[in-house]
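Narrative summary of target 7.
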Amino acid sequence: MVQLRIPLPRHLSFLNGRRFFFFSDTHLRPTGKYPSEPGLSAWSNAGFPGDEVLREALSFRPDFTLFGGDLLRHICCFDAGIAFLKAMPGKWKLAVYGNWDRRRAAWFPFHVFERELQKARVLPLVNESFTREGIRFFGMDDFKSAVPRYEPPDSEAVFNCILSHNPDAVPYAMTQRDLDSADLILCGHTHGGQVRIPGYGAVLTSSIHGKHFEYGLYEIRNSAVKLYVTAGLGITFLPIRFRCPPEVVKIELFDPYAEKSIPR
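Modeled conformation, tokenized:
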């Protein structure tokens, strides 16, 4: 579990305390004990089972639940994956598609995937925005399997959060001016490498930029925006994790000016 506190500019202080629950890259495969419902394939994902993720989300009580893509590795887990997304809390639940989501359209018509997400009360964002209560989310399409695009907000009177499965989409689709319009960028895809060597980090990242966006919190040069690349929950290719545990990300927006005024 990772906890991030993101400071708000003074004009967005009314968003103090808003919470995002971000997770990505579940890559569901039939390997564990979750879920227990009859007829649904079980999964555990490298030691981070679904019931533990749900407990973390329920205790956090997010305003927005955000999924960074790559739901499945095996089609037999599709119903279990939809049940998991449906059980996740959050007044609004948003998602972007990952490269596995796009490529697995060969399993069944893609409109089935979209229909089941709707039943789970999850809104996928495909090069489009969603704005509620002063917070704007823009979801970019996948970098490897589609064409990501970005559009800046019309107004500065919103907190602007960009969701992108693959961090490679950020330098591809966003200009410096676009970055200046953003407050937070959330990505997955790299899995943090899954295998990390002390003093070196990720061995493989599946990124055209190598280790540049491998894992963690980044502050982009010449911009105030923060970018976080999560290690995700699942595993792919290598069925192991080493010094790179699965994670969920709890994000809270806070007003630094209000905190400075609190007597010590």
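The first helix runs from residue 50 to 60.
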